[in-house]
Amino acid sequence: MSVDDLIKSLNFNDKGLIPSIIQDDATGKVLTLCYMNEAALRKTFEEGRIYLFRRSRSMLMMKGSTSGHVQIVKKIYIDCAENSLLFRIEQKGGACHAGWFTCYYRETDRAGKVKVVEKKVFEPSKVYTQGR
Amino acid sequence: MSVDDLIKSLNFNDKGLIPSIIQDDATGKVLTLCYMNEAALRKTFEEGRIYLFRRSRSMLMMKGSTSGHVQIVKKIYIDCAENSLLFRIEQKGGACHAGWFTCYYRETDRAGKVKVVEKKVFEPSKVYTQGR
Fold first, then answer.
1. B3-127 has which CATH code?
2. Do B114 and A2 touch (CB under 8 A)?
3. Nearest chain A Cα to B113, which residue?
4. Using the 8-state DSSP alphabet, how is residue B43 labeled?
5. How many A-B residue pairs are in contact by the CB < 8 A criterion?
6. How far apart are CA B21 and CA B92, in angstroms?
7. What is the pTM of this model?
8. Residues of B with Cβ-Cβ distance to A77 under 8 angstroms
């Protein structure tokens, strides 16, 4: 199967996107859930860096293009329904724009009590000097 | 914060759903991406078992209610944008309806070459005798 065939076999949602789980390959930590359109997926396969479709700005971008916190693709998995993907990656810096290694930096118990369980790995105001 | 307050703080999508990543707590393997509506989330918090909103059937169900392959909640995380959740769980049997431990049982390389990288943990025809 070629990348073209693979992309054709996937079920993009009604907005033309496929949700992609990003997991740190070294630690196993889940970092983000991002959304890729066909162009983002194609670039990700070509370059081995995570590209995503930023829904808030409706634009294709390489993850880390502003911050340097790129995600280097190690392994790619397809789910049983061909409607989501899993990428195991090497994370440079932190995945979360708010300064954390993972976007899932807050834990809640089943009573709804929330606490921060990660340490900051960078200071956003120093990294995003021209906004994101 | 109570569970009510927590649920109010979340950003459900335009279909009233929040995507939830399910990860096996023991192995770190990502198992599925499921979708919860408010009722499913509330039941998950109350009972400590994953409930989901089956989009194909528009119904609330406990994961594993037919197969016995329930997912016991160990840890719950909230992402930075409050629009996705991560559950670390204990998986009974296999998470994938097709008989695999994880729905991400196929790996692809960057050239689009796909291979199965898991072993079957159950035979679907023996588990789902009355359909899913």
1. 3.10.20.810
2. no
3. A1
4. H
5. 113
6. 17
7. 0.95
8. 30, 104-108, 117
Instruction: Tell me the domain boundaries of chain A.
Output: 3-96
CATH number at A3-96 = 3.10.20.810
- pLDDT tens, position by position, B95-114: 999 999 999 999 999 999 99
pLDDT-derived band at A130 (thresholds 50, 70, 90) equals low
For residues A117 and A103, is the Cβ–Cβ distance under 8 A? Answer: no
* Prediction ipTM score: 0.95
CA angle B102, A72, A4 (to 5 degrees): 70
CA dihedral A83, B43, A30, A82 (to 10 degrees): -10
- Tell whether B2 is within 8 A of chain A (Cβ): yes
CB of A105 within 8 Å of a chain B CB? The answer is: yes
Summarised one tens digit per residue, pLDDT across range A1-31 is: 899 999 999 999 999 999 999 999 999 999 9
pLDDT at residue B77 tops 80? yes
pLDDT given for residue B130 in this prediction? 60
Q: Which residues of B touch A117 (CB under 8 A)?
A: 77
d(CA B103, CA B123): 14
Portion of chain B with pLDDT greater than 90, in percent: 87
